[in-house]
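In response to reviewer comment 3 from the previous cycle, which asked for concrete evidence that the modeling workflow produces usable outputs, we include below a single protein chain processed end to end. The sequence was submitted unchanged, and the resulting structure tokens are shown without manual editing.
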Amino acid sequence: MSTTDAPPPGPAVAAPRADPAPAPTVAARTGPVSTAVPGPSEPAPDAAGSAARRLRHNADFRRFWFGEGVSLFGSQVTALALPLTAVLTLGAGPEELGVLRFLQLVPFLVFALPFGVWVDRSRRRPVLIGSNLARLVLIGAVPLLAAVDQLHLWVLFAVTFGVGVATVLFDVCWMSYVPVLVRDPEQLVMANGKLGATSSAADAAGPSLGGALVGALTAPVTLALDALSYLVSMIALALIRTREPVPTAPARRRRLSAELGEGLRWVVGDGYLRAIALVGAACNFVTAGVQSLFLIYVVSDQGLDPALLGLVFSVGAVGGIVGALVTSRLLGRFRLGRVYVGSLAVAFAACALIPVVGGTPPVRVALYTALYFLMFGGVTTGNIVVLSLRQTITPRALLGRMNAAMRMLMVGFGAIGAPVGGVLGGAIGVREALFAMSAAAIVMLVPILLSPVGRLREMPPPAVEPVEAA
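The workflow returned the following structure tokens.
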């Protein structure tokens, strides 16, 4: 999941899209540009080393990376401490926890697209700082209210929803801000790899850290420490010196619906983005369904100790760190399309094998851990490739709306996959439902293999920036 100005200009890929709205026109891609972009398929070792050195010396990206890393670890702590506050402090039951989870996810469906328009109209850094400030205040209010015995379940619901809204805004914005700090496409892949490795490290260590803090300090006090993580992120963002250009104002004021439509048309009209959106949404649907069934299957049906289950997830998440660290090397050695197809094929093959695992408890734990290691690693590598591709081929004026549309599709289908898996498990049995989801994972290999992204040799030329219509 960084550059000082617009991406360097590249050749137009297709004729500009005709848009009846009197607004900036953007060079549109009507489909895949080319399956073999001219130029060497493998960067020279000196060039790759030079790009890595330049990224290491990019002080503003380092500041952003540090602040984002602290915030990611804090978010993982929140994900555990908020529901534990509901259970341990307020006596919430499964129904209330279901509402809490819903309130965490629904902002992505409701606010992602409007926030994308806002991000494209604004400088990104103030928006990032503001969203972190909102999370700091909301999460910091929980321990204060608990200390004076004024924390109620409806208050926690409101805080959860507010934090979810701020998280949507931050997520949409940071993906559009990284190309402001990192201009070179090769460095962009490396930057996304570093952010991906940090995210995977937070996935691996965050739950354990959160559990230890809750056990030692109580859930509300843990949230107070989490609030401080957003303060650290705000300070890191405030120290960034790269000047962000003011977004070009349209010739005439445009309606929100017109700008939303422009972003959606960009995603649907571009062959690469359309394939990424469809494959990604289906992938999230399948993995969310498998995840919800897996928890019930291994704990209730197989009697796996919850502590061992946590070990499976934590060690498995290390695969994401490994995947993030090797992505740049893989892209230096193999074609971009092969890395994309290979990484997702590994992830879904591992997903499909989950219901066939057998043997003694230690053997099952070892096999589940290995499969989750492969899943995390494959998905992380694939995510870095497609995120870098999205950032490269989308004009900066559309980055917010493009990322918002992608987030809405990914989170939306992920949210649907979990209840569908639960309903299927109740209807035909948990293990049988896992087999059904595994079959869907195998079917997913077909669109991955047919995707135009899989035929790319290297990163396409950067997008042409908007030009004002007469």
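The two ends are 36 Å apart (CA to CA). We consider this sufficient to address the reviewer's concern, and the full set will be provided in the supplementary archive.
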